[in-house]
Amino acid sequence: MVTMVGVDVHKRTHTAVVVDPVGRQLGVRTVRATDAGHRQLLGWVLREFGGEVEFAIEDCRHVSTRLERALLGAGQVVLRVPPK
């Protein structure tokens, strides 16, 4: 089963909410919107939730592009979600 990580992106921080296949919240983490923060986020998700993970990222490319590239570079599945 796939674990979904929804990410709300902002200029200075990104907040991720992990949910199970039926939508129950499993965890929340806010990281800085930096390369180090992106690595922290990915490490947390893989350590705590492992297995099949998909990232659903709010489609605000002026603030989400670096995170998307970091996740794709790490072999993760990334889905863009319209902000409205």
List keywords for this structure.
5-stranded mixed sheet, 5 strands, single chain, 39% strand, 84 residues, alpha/beta
Description:
The structure is a single chain. By secondary structure, this protein is α/β, with parallel strands linked by helices. The chain has a domain at 1-7 and 47-84. Helix content is 33%, strand content 39%. The chain contains two helices and five strands; from the N terminus they run βββαβαβ. The chain has helices at 35-49, 61-73, and strands at 3-9, 13-19, 25-32, 53-58, 77-81. A five-stranded mixed beta sheet has the order 3-2-1-4-5, with helices on one face. α1 (35-49) packs across α2 (61-73). The longest helix has 15 residues, at 35-49. The radius of gyration is 12 Å and the shape is globular. The relative contact order is 0.23.
Q: Report how far apart the termini are.
A: 27 Å
Beta percentage is 35-45%
Q: Give the helix proportion (percent range).
A: 25-40%
- Gross geometry: globular
What is the radius of gyration? 12 Å
Précis, in short:
The chain is α/β, with parallel strands linked by helices and 84 residues long. It has helices at residues 35-49, 61-73; strands spanning 3-9, 13-19, 25-32, 53-58, 77-81.
Layout of helices and strands:
Blueprint: E1 3-9, E2 13-19, E3 25-32, H1 35-49, E4 53-58, H2 61-73, E5 77-81
Parallel strand pairs: 1-4, 4-5
Antiparallel strand pairs: 1-2, 2-3
